[in-house]
Structure formats: structure tokens, C-alpha cells
Design a protein that fits this description.
Elements (H helix, E strand, L loop, with lengths): L1 H6 L7 H7 L8 E4 L4 E7 L6 E7 L8 H13 L8 E7 L2 E7 L17 H19 L6 E4 L8 E3 L5 E3 L6 E4 L7 E2 L11 H6 L1 E2 L1 H17 L4 E4 L2 E4 L1 H9 L9 H6 L2 H16 L15 E4 L6 E2 L2 H8 L18 E4 L5 E3 L14 E3 L4 E3 L7 E3 L4 E3 L6 E4 L4 E4 L31 E3 L5 E3 H9 L20 E2 L4
Antiparallel strand pairs: 1-2, 2-3, 3-5, 4-5, 6-9, 7-8, 10-11, 12-13, 14-15, 14-16, 16-17, 18-19, 20-21, 22-23, 24-25, 24-26
């Protein structure tokens, strides 16, 4: 701690100076209150000239304490940006812990949400500036660290005399690696009701997308002209779900701030609502799923009523059961229910969660009940096969005799065997037609998993296990991309 204090010695401000500036913390100088304590306004002569500043005085009864105090000093000293509030100094004297900031004369955003004088242009500018500040924290240049704020909300967005937005209150923030595409931290849950990421609450897994979720809520507040929750006699009720449903039903007029409806271009409002909703659609994309798929929901198996990420996970599980009579496979078309892993809501199969509005899979097939965020697989549904395939529809054709899709360069050149894919792999006994693994076509026209075929060749077995004909002579090896 001594080394820490030496490093920030230049920021220390005497308690007497602060008492003089606030008239001994007179209540008439209070400009706000939060989880850290009271915030006072005062004129400080500590600097070369007199400045109006804000003093945030720690009150341990409000929920925060010494760790948040020192964290705020550390974060705002190392991370500086025009859209982050500036720390001017601190006081750690006689049991008092006080943070000194630049004064944002227009207060916090939450106080202006329902203001008719805050124009649509100003609202857009504020949102862009908050996004810019968040982008700096999440992907700062010249550092290997990423800062996750953990408490993005309209009351933590301050507005200076020029209505420029500045993110404040870094005391709850966490630092993680910034040089990874998908990094996360396992940590205790912090934040504010209505804004906090539901998955973070449920699983204590923190990612930068947790801040993105909170920012999406702020966007809806700006659009709707009100806070995201109501307080009914001490019972807090979130409005986010209702806002999302109105958006899905194309009933924006029911939620948009009345003054904005009358004085703002309709196209602009709709584009903004699209962005607010899209931040939710893409929420947690790539961070959830199994070894087979990236998706944000689990399937309710109609056969055993258990939850699984996919039918391959289900089949793998049932194959490990000691009682062979319990071994069974999940029929994809029988699936009726899914559980959104963002808000933990069970619902009928659909691409969009009816409760929280998240897109549970970037690719979605209603027939196969297939969800997948990894669209680089180029999924497509083959009506003739009756299932989804990978590799791009334009790269494959369906062979009616074989009953399967093959690459275009195999058209007219492969040996046709009726229903050649609708058998078990002779190597591992998995049903080939619905396998997610790569499959190759042998010279004789029969099919086998690529890995099983390679194993067979390593063992110097060159005849087809099915027809005993040579599998290698004259064979043009092709990989058939399967689907779900």
C-alpha cells in the first residue's frame, strides 16, 4: 500500500480543503447519491486556478467500501479517455475516503430521459459517445488488458456543460485479458437491477458482453424516455421484457417517448430501435454451446425430458448409460421445447427468445430444430435429404439414387449405390446419414467416415468392409459435409 500511495501522491488533496469547498459537507451542496455515498459540488482552489468539482464521499452503509475506493483511483489513473470521467484527486485522511472528479454540470443521463428539451440529435450523440467510451475500455490500444465496467446504467453516464457523455463509477470494474476473442472472468455478481446481464447473474461468468447488455438497456431508456424499471412499494419490476416484445410485434408507438414520436423522423427512430434490439440479439454470441454447436439455448429431449445442448450430446449421454435398454436417440423433428440459456426461460421452438429477445442461434432451421451461431459452416436445409447440411447450398447437389448430397465435382462421376448413406459406418457404427463428422465415398460407391477410412488404410486394409471390393484403386476421395 505504501508503494501505491507513493505512485499517486500527486493526487492527494487535504481534507480541510475539501471541507472548505463543501462548507463542511453541507446538505445544500449535495448533487447526487449512489452506491458509494453522497456526491457534493464545490469550488476547489487546490489547482492553479479555482475549479468547480465533484466530491464523492464514501458511506460504507451504502454498500461499497475501501476496495471500490482504491479501485476507482487505480482505474481512472491508468485509463483516460474523453468519454470517461476524469479523476482529479482523492483524500484518505481521518477515516474519510473522498474521490474528486471533474464536475459534469448537466448531471447524469437518467435525469434527462423524460426531458422534452433533450433533442433526438443530442440523445443520439450521447449514445455514440457512451459506445466510444465502452469500446476504449473493452479494447484499449497499447495494453493487454480489457476493462469490464459491470455497472453501465443511465445514472452512471454524466453530461458536461457541452452535453458530452462521460462514463463514471469505475469502482466495481474488473480487468481481464484483451488479446483473446472470447475472454471471461468468474467473479461475484455486481451491478444494478434492470441493467445487469441475466447470464452473469445466473452463472457468475463475466464478459464484455455483460456491459453490452447493460448498454442496450440504456439505449431503450433513451428511446422510451424513462428508466428501465418501476418501483411499486419497494418491489422493483423490469420493463425490458415488455419493451422487447413491443419491438418484436412492431408496436413501437406503445413504448417510444411521446415527444420523440411527434418531432423525430420515423426512419431514424426505427433504425435506433433496431440497434438497441440487435445488441440483445447478438448477446452472448459465440460464448455458449457445446463441442458440436455454438448456440444460446438447450433442447428439451422429448424422449427422456432432459436438457441437452444438441441431439449429439443427448446420444452421447445415453450411450454411456449402464442399462443398455435406456440407450436411445433423439428425433430432431419431435423437439417441441427449448430453454433460453440467457434468461433460463422454457418456451416453444423459435429462433428468438420470447422473454428476453435474444437470438438463440444465428442460423435457425425450423424443420430440423437446428440452432448455430457459427454460420461459417454455411448451413443449408436440403428438402430432398430432409435435414440440414454444411458447406453451402451452391456447392452441393442431391443424388436421388444415393439419397444424399454430394459435392458438385462428383456429379456424374461417382458410383451410385442406392441409399448409400443410410447405413451405419462400418468403422464406428454411427448412422452416416445424420452424422456430423466428415464422410468419404469409396471407389465402390459405399461410404465411411473419413477418420475410420484413414484408420483402415493405416492397418493396410484396402477392401470395402461392405462389398469386399477394392476401396482405394482409382478412388477419387471426396469429403461430404454433413449437418445436424
Amino acid at each position: 500500500m505504501e508503494d501505491f500511495l507513493k505512485e499517486f501522491q500527486h493526487l492527494k488533496i487535504q481534507l480541510e480543503e475539501i471541507k472548505s469547498a463543501t462548507n463542511n459537507f453541507d446538505i445544500s451542496n449535495v448533487i447526487g447519491k449512489g452506491g458509494f455515498g453522497m456526491v457534493y459540488k464545490g469550488v476547489l482552489s487546490h489547482f492553479k486556478e479555482q475549479n468547480t468539482v465533484a466530491f464523492k464521499r464514501l458511506d460504507r452503509n451504502c454498500g461499497q467500501g475501501d476496495p471500490e475506493f482504491w479501485k476507482e483511483i487505480l482505474m481512472l489513473s491508468y485509463y483516460t479517455h474523453k468519454n470517461l470521467i476524469s479523476l482529479l484527486g482523492f483524500c484518505d485522511e481521518d477515516g474519510e475516503k473522498i474521490l474528486v472528479y471533474e464536475h459534469a454540470s448537466n448531471g447524469s443521463l437518467d435525469r434527462h430521459l423524460s426531458s422534452c428539451t433533450l433533442t433526438w440529435r443530442q440523445r443520439l450523440k450521447i449514445c455514440v459517445e457512451v459506445a466510444t467510451g465502452l469500446c476504449y475500455l473493452h479494447d484499449p490500444n497499447g495494453t493487454q488488458h480489457r476493462v469490464i465496467h459491470r455497472d453501465i446504467k443511465s445514472s452512471n453516464i454524466l453530461l458536461d456543460e457541452n452535453w458530452e457523455a462521460k462514463i463514471s463509477d469505475m469502482g466495481l470494474s474488473k480487468i481481464g485479458p484483451a488479446n483473446q476473442q472470447h475472454s471471461f472472468l468468474a467473479t461475484n455478481v455486481a451491478g444494478t437491477f434492470g441493467y445487469v446481464d441475466p447470464t452473469y447473474v445466473e452463472k457468475s461468468i463475466l464478459t464484455k458482453e455483460s456491459d453490452v447488455y447493460s448498454f442496450g438497456v440504456v439505449l431503450f431508456e433513451v428511446l422510451c424516455g424513462r428508466l428501465c424499471f418501476v418501483n411499486n412499494n419497494g418491489h422493483f419490476e423490469s420493463l425490458v421484457g415488455m419493451w422487447k416484445k413491443n419491438y418484436k410485434r412492431k408496436e413501437l408507438d406503445a413504448i417510444i417517448f411521446e415527444d420523440l414520436k411527434q418531432n423525430t423522423n420515423r426512419d431514424s427512430l426505427e433504425i435506433f430501435s433496431d440497434i438497441a434490439y440487435q445488441s440483445r440479439l447478438d448477446f452472448r454470441k459465440w460464448t455458449l454451446g457445446c463441442e458440436h454447436y455454438r448456440r444460446r439455448c438447450k433442447l428439451r429431449a422429448p424422449c427422456c425430458n432432459k436438457l441437452f445442448w444438441c441431439r449429439h450430446c443427448h446420444n452421447k449421454y445415453t450411450n454411456t448409460l449402464n442399462d443398455s435398454t435406456e440407450t436411445h436417440t433423439m428425433v430432431r423433428k419431435d423437439i417441441q421445447q427449448v430453454v433460453c440459456m440467457i434468461c433460463n426461460t422454457e418456451q416453444p421452438v423459435d429462433q428468438i427468445c420470447g422473454n428476453c429477445g435474444v437470438k438463440m442461434g444465428e442460423y435457425f432451421c425450423e424443420i430440423c430444430k437446428l440452432f448455430d451461431d457459427d454460420t461459417s459452416k454455411q448451413q443449408f436445409h436440403c428438402n430432398d435429404c430432409g435435414i440440414c447440411r454444411f458447406g453451402g447450398r451452391e456447392n452441393f447437389y442431391h443424388c436421388d439414387k444415393c439419397g444424399c448430397c454430394f459435392r458438385n465435382d462428383m456429379r456424374g462421376s461417382h458410383m451410385c449405390v442406392e441409399n448409400s448413406m443410410k447405413i451405419e459406418c462400418s468403422g464406428c457404427h454411427e448412422y452416416l446419414f445424420e452424422s456430423s463428422k466428415d464422410i468419404t465415398l469409396m471407389y465402390c460407391g459405399h461410404t465411411i467416415h473419413v477418420d475410420c477410412y484413414s484408420t483402415m488404410l493405416r492397418k493396410k486394409k484396402t477392401t470395402c468392409p461392405i462389398c469386399a471390393k477394392s476401396s482405394a484403386v482409382g478412388q477419387k476421395k471426396t469429403r461430404i459435409k454433413q449437418g445436424d
